[in-house]
Structure formats: C-alpha cells, structure tokens
Amino acid sequence: MRLLPESARGQRFLAVVLLLITLLLAYLLLVHWWLVSPYLAMRDEYYDLKDQQYRFAELIQSKPVVEQQLKDVAGLEQQNQAFLNDADAASAFSDLSERLKRAVDQNLDPNGRCTVNGISPSGSHTPEVYLRVSANVNMSCQAETFSKVLYTIESSNPYLFVDRLVMYRQQPMFVPGGKPAPPGATLVNSQFMLSGFLRQPGGVKEGK
Fold it and tell me: Of 4, 50, 51, 137, which sits with the fewest C-beta atoms within 10 Å of its C-beta?
C-alpha cells in the first residue's frame, strides 16, 4: 500500500501542502506568539487608555457645572427652615423651652389653664443623620388647650416632633358651691418628649 503519490506532479503538490503547513506553524510559533500577540494586547490597552482619557476630559469640562450645583445645594440647605438655628445642643434646648412656652401662651384662653410643670434635657441614644436635641416635658392643661398646643408645635418651623406621649386625666374639678366643673375644665396631665434637629452631623452617614 503506497502512501505517497507515484507521479512527480502529485509529489510536488504534497510538498507544497507540507511547506504551507510548516510555514503556518512557524508563523504561529515564531511570529504571531512573539510579535503580533503583544502588539494586539498593546493596541487594546491603548484604546482603553484613550477611553479613560475621554471620560476624564468630560469630567474636567463638567467640573464648573458640578461645583455650581454643589453651591446651589448648600445654599438651599442653609435656607432650609426645618432645622433649629442654634449653635449647640444647650442653646437648642433653651430654644425648645421658649417655643413650648410661646405655644402655650398663644393658645391659652383668658380663663383657661395650661401649665408647663417641668422640662429637662433628654439625650439622644440613637445615632441619626442630623443631631437631635430633645427635652422631656411634663404639662397640665385642659384637653382642648393641650390639643391646640400640640398642633402649634408640630405645624411650626423649624420642625418639632412630639414622641412618647403619655396622658392621664385628673379628677374633675369643682366650682364654688360644690357644682361640677363645666365640660372642658378637667385637666389632663401629659408627659412627652419634644425634639428638633440641628444642622450638624448626628453620627450616621446619610443614606445608611
């Protein structure tokens, strides 16, 4: 059984095929691996660097716009009336006390009764984005007056919050002559925490 062609033409064709295979293998092993492949890798890296340069150039061009937007946001933050304007927690506590007293005076009828029996600072045990300033309040008011005081507090600027509200009714009062007090004259004792926020970090990053 013959594996090689007998004719000279067939032998030449086989020799050409073997030569081409040899040249292809030589190219893959000697040229492509050592020269072309590193060049292709360098070309890809070059295009990556060009793409990064383009993105950096866009960022540099947009820097003035971003800076102006940050200034606008900072200006809006300063104009935000939701925060207490005090410098520290001590002065903010005094501010809370004064706002509570003004709310009582504003809603107290000439013959009504509403008294702030006590107000003391309360530390914030839970870290928040902004610094919370809180006060423990003890009051005795007629129910209608107390509801008006709460509405005034919670609908004002800066934003104030009432939490942990506990209420209980006192024994009905009597007017001279032993007659029961008119409806609405019964006092309600209440305890709650009044809070506001300073425009200062409270220990938790925004968005957490």
Answer: 4
CATH of 89-201, one of 3.30.1950.10, 3.30.70.60, 3.40.50.620, 3.40.50.1000: 3.30.70.60
Q: Are 82 and 129 in contact (CB under 8 A)?
A: no
Quote the mean pLDDT of the chain.
78
Q: How many CA atoms lie within 13 A of 143 on its CB side?
A: 10
The string of pLDDT tens digits covering residues 138-197 is: 999 998 999 999 999 988 888 999 999 999 887 665 555 555 555 556 789 999 999 998
Residues 6+ apart with CB under 8 A from 96: 84, 119, 133, 135, 160, 194, 195, 196
